[in-house]
Automatic annotation (TrEMBL):
Its EC number is 2.7.1.30. It catalyses: glycerol + ATP = sn-glycerol 3-phosphate + ADP + H(+). The keyword ATP-binding applies. It comes from Marinomonas piezotolerans. The lineage of its organism: Bacteria, Pseudomonadati, Pseudomonadota, Gammaproteobacteria, Oceanospirillales. Pathway: Polyol metabolism; glycerol degradation via glycerol kinase pathway; sn-glycerol 3-phosphate from glycerol: step 1/1. The keyword Transferase applies. GO terms for molecular function: ATP binding; glycerol kinase activity. ATP binds at residues 12-14, 265, 308, 312, 408. Glycerol binds at residues 82-83, 134, 243-244. ADP binds at residues 12, 16, 265, 308, 408, 412. This is Glycerol kinase.
Length: 494
């Protein structure tokens, strides 16, 4: 009898369920978008019920569409938008507030105060992170401080915190398991990545000690068996990882020095650093790449908040095209592509600037600037931002010759070629670009013995196309200098 792996990919704009066979070949997929909630300037929320119901719906749909009996699903993997914060009451099982999404900037002032009080170095030393509203811990504090009655319920020991993986696991197991994995824990700013424990001192400092934190497991582990009522069978969950780390696994970047970059709503470049937790001098994050058999593989990460989201803005905000697939032919018509820049700092700037108060801009406009030029500038902005990260990592001593890319944007050949041109290195696009889901399916399969080792998983990875640089050095420098100048103009603190 065939065996399958079901990957749940709960992302920022949609929930996906993908079924893979044991060779990592996609058998079926279902996807559902859900509403984004913007209650205030810089605030972004999701209704946890939407996250759960859309997840459940896509799991049921993919089983139905593929006509696969749920009893033949050997294991489930859960991968998720990271940092997004949910607090729920353990007695009622109900969230006490909307999920505060990773992009949300509401705790910006509090973070600034923490920096001014001199906590930056110790936070970085323990968590590998820079103090920023991006991470979960200050979002937990905000809910405790601002939602009526929650602090009191927490004092009584009834309030649980979870990132999205943890909340979905709780739902799927009907409240039996409150767990997460080390990659998700590493994004909370409350987890010590060296001891692999929640950090009591930090939790105390942030005033979030009354909340119940989830048990932290390996990324490939026995997370619990889902309740039969949801998918018609009791299926074990054996893989959990934040989506960007899952993509690292899906791209088979298992050797120190291997690097991948994922282009979805945002862009996240992750470099495997092996058993060494390197501290960046250039504002990269130190994080957990994956944890298997208690063994931590560390990574350096550069996080860009707006990549594909810029393309969505050009489509929905400026209405320059109806579908993202049109951007390639539009950009080919651009006559001023080299002089028009779009800095998409809509929610501030992430790495390597960490400037929550910066805002976006278009630079270099003239009377003959066309819609095509602007579309081209939007596409190129993700490449320029990637170069910012690659240069910062190089200054930290990390150089690499090849970059593996994935995510919704990399179907666009123009983007990937420009990326290779600008970086001056080979950029490889894999056959399966749903690497996030594939990665967590691999983690689940590893635990139940479908794969013997990471080496065996590496052998399943296949390149679809290799892009090599085709731009002279002078042009590369000229173009990038223009970007650096454009970014300088939008910084809040310069
Ligand atoms: N052909 C294309 N060219 C450029 N961008 C694209 C193209 N197709 C999709 N995108 C962008 O890719 C993003 C979707 O990628 P995806 O990996 O599904 O994102 P997420 O997982 O963050 O929801 C969208 O922001 C969309 O604008
Ligand atoms: O949902 P995505 O793919 O945009 O990923 C979001 C990241 O995990 C945020 O850190």
């Amino acid at each position: 009898m065939s065996q399958y792996l079901l990957a749940i990919d709960q992302g920022t704009t949609s929930s996906r369920a993908i079924i893979f066979d044991t060779k990592g070949v996609r058998v079926g997929q279902s996807q559902q978008e859900f509403p984004q909630i913007f209650p205030n300037d810089g605030w972004v929320e999701h209704d946890p019920e939407d996250l759960w119901q859309s997840t459940l719906a896509v799991c049921r749909n993919v089983l139905k569409d593929t006509d696969i009996d749920s009893s033949t699903v050997a294991s489930i993997g859960i991968t998720n938008q990271r940092e997004t914060t949910i607090l729920w009451d353990t007695e009622t099982g109900k969230p006490v507030y909307n999920a505060i999404v990773w992009q949300d900037r509401r705790t910006s002032e509090y973070c600034q105060a923490l920096v001014e009080q001199g906590h930056g170095d110790s936070v970085q030393a323990k968590t590998g992170l820079l103090i920023d509203p991006y991470f979960s811990a200050t979002k937990i504090r905000w809910i405790l401080e601002n939602v009526e009655g929650v602090k009191e319920r927490a004092k009584l020991g009834h309030i649980a915190f979870g990132t999205v993986d943890s909340y979905l696991l709780w739902q799927l197991t009907s409240g039996r398991y409150h767990r997460t994995d080390a990659t998700n824990a590493a994004r909370t700013m409350a987890f010590n990545i060296h001891t692999q424990q929640w950090d009591d001192e930090l939790i105390e400092l942030l005033g979030i000690g009354d909340v119940i934190f989830p048990q932290v497991m390996d990324s490939s582990d026995d997370f619990g068996v889902i309740d039969e009522q949801w998918l018609g069978a009791e299926i074990p969950v054996n893989g959990v990882a934040g989506d960007q780390q899952a993509a690292l696994v899906g791209q088979a970047c298992f050797t120190p020095g291997m690097v991948k970059s994922t282009y979805g709503t945002g862009c996240f470049l992750i470099l495997n650093t092996g058993d060494k937790a390197l501290t960046s001098e250039h504002k990269m994050l130190t994080t957990v790449g994956y944890r298997i058999n208690g063994q931590v593989t560390y990574a350096l990460e550069g996080s860009i908040f707006v990549a594909g989201a810029a393309i969505q803005w050009l489509r929905d905000g400026l209405k320059l095209f109806a579908d993202a697939s049109e951007t390639q032919s539009l950009a080919k018509q651009a006559l001023n592509a080299d002089t028009v820049y779009l800095v998409p700092a809509f929610t501030g700037l992430g790495a390597p600037y960490w400037d929550p108060d910066a805002r976006g801009a278009m630079i270099g406009l003239t009377r003959d600037t066309s819609a095509s030029d602007i579309v081209s500038a939007g596409l190129r902005s993700v490449c320029y931002q990637t170069k910012d990260l690659v240069d910062a990592m190089a200054q930290d001593g990390a150089n690499f010759e090849t970059l593996r890319v994935d995510g919704g944007m990399v179907v666009n050949d123009l983007v990937v070629q420009f990326l290779s041109d600008l970086l001056g290195i080979t950029v490889e696009r894999p056959k399966v670009t749903e690497t996030t889901a594939l990665g967590v399916a691999f983690l689940a399969g590893l635990r139940i013995g479908l794969y013997e080792s990471l080496d065996q998983i590496s052998e399943l990875w296949q390149s679809e196309h290799c892009f090599t640089p085709d731009m002279d050095e002078d042009n590369r420098h000229k173009l990038y200098d223009g970007w650096v100048d454009a970014v300088r103009r939008v910084r809040s603190s310069l």
